[in-house]
């Protein structure tokens, strides 16, 4: 798919006020988007939306409950602002944690992450014919997150998943991954989970 010929507008939903959301907003601004950042979807955007990013703060240990319900409500509210297929469609990206694969010391976070993946894939099925794609970036906690370096969960032989890459994942890495899924050239990708984890998702929760 080709890039749209109209000015591009993005909305970053950032209820937790995270560095990752800020990095995504900055990356999209540098790509030529007009970017609005909001705590939730109650405020009406300034025009049709080419991109929506939902970053509920799961990578930063922000208190988060019912994030899948909030995602569904936001997409329902913003539905009238999504561009139709004949106008290039829209892209939705959900940012969540690789903990959705399972992690013993953060079961509530893992459950929220898994629910977000299910909700996003269901939205992809429901919106596919309209020209809107929905994808997920599942990441390790980036540098600066309080979740990093928590060590070995009690009563297990496991250690916090670590990237196989020589450098830790950063908020900018996550922003670049989100930007790829928001690009018009990835418009044939929908309902997918792209792990931004330096290879950590290759290790199951039972790996040493």
Low-confidence sequence ranges: none
Described by strand count, sense and barrel closure, the largest sheet is: 6 strands, parallel
H/E element sequence: EHEEHEHEHE
Strand content: 15-25%
Model description:
Helices cover 27% and strands 15% of the residues. It has 4 helices and 6 strands; from the N terminus they run βαββαβαβαβ. Helix 1 packs across helix 4. With 208 residues, the protein is an alpha/beta fold. The longest helix is centred in the middle third of the chain and has 21 residues, at 107-127. The chain has a 6-stranded parallel beta sheet, sandwiched between helices. The mean pLDDT is 90. Helix 1 (19-30) links the parallel strand 1 and strand 2 (34-38).
Task: Briefly characterize the structure.
The chain is α/β, with parallel strands linked by helices and 208 residues long. 27% of the residues lie in helices and 15% in strands.
Keywords:
six-stranded parallel sheet, alpha/beta, 208 residues, globular, 6 strands, single chain
Write the layout of secondary structure elements.
Elements: E1 9-13, H1 19-30, E2 34-38, E3 51-54, H2 67-78, E4 91-97, H3 107-127, E5 133-139, H4 171-182, E6 193-196
Parallel strand pairs: 1-2, 1-3, 3-4, 4-5, 5-6
Helix pairs in contact: 1-4, 2-3
């Amino acid at each position: 798919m080709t890039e749209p010929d109209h000015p591009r507008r993005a909305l970053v939903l950032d209820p937790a006020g995270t560095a990752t959301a800020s990095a995504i907003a900055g990356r999209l601004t540098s790509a030529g988007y007009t970017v609005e950042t909001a705590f939730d979807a109650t405020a009406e955007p300034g025009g049709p939306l080419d991109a929506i990013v939902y970053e509920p703060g799961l990578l930063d240990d922000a208190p988060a409950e019912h994030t899948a319900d909030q995602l569904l409500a936001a997409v329902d509210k913003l539905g009238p602002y999504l561009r139709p297929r004949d106008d290039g469609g829209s892209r939705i990206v959900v940012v969540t944690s690789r903990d959705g694969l399972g992690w013993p010391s953060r079961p509530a976070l893992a459950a929220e992450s898994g629910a977000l993946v299910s909700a996003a894939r269901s939205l992809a099925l429901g919106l596919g014919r309209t020209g809107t794609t929905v994808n997920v970036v599942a990441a390790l906690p980036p540098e600066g997150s309080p979740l990093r370096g928590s060590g070995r969960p009690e009563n297990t032989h496991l250690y916090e998943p670590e990237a196989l890459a020589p450098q830790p994942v950063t908020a900018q890495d996550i922003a670049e991954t989100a930007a790829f899924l928001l690009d018009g050239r990835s418009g044939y990708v929908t309902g997918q989970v792209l792990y931004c984890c330096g290879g950590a998702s290759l290790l199951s929760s039972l790996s040493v």
